[in-house]
Amino acid sequence: LSLCALAVSDERPVSTQSTMGVGHMTYVLPFFKRLENRTLINPDCDNDPDCTEFHNNHGNQRISLPTFRFDSINNPWLLSCAREGVPTNPDYNGKEQLGAAIMEHTIFDGARWSTQNGYLNTALDRPNLDILQNHMVMKLNLDDSTRA
Question: Is the pLDDT of residue 131 over 80?
């Protein structure tokens, strides 16, 4: 269960407010969109303008809703929030963050979908990747011509 309540201190729209300052959402949204795969929530996201503005179905991180729902707990909680003026918000990672919702998860086929599943396992066959066990990284040397 999730309850998101924002306190906006001035007249700017909530979507441009954050603890990082105005425009933060504009900066981070492309990164969030690139990582997520919401095919389990909205398989038709590519054809839904409300979905494509904030979401993606082609990223490496599987996003889903819980398959086992405690409706005897969730439904009364969502109803009580609505009675107190907190709207139900099925997409709190979309245009509006205010509201009560069932939390999204990174779970796929009944197991946690980790960054290892999403990124490392898909890159294991790359010729430029060496995986060493029981080693500690002491330093990364990066320059402007290489990607981390």
Answer: yes
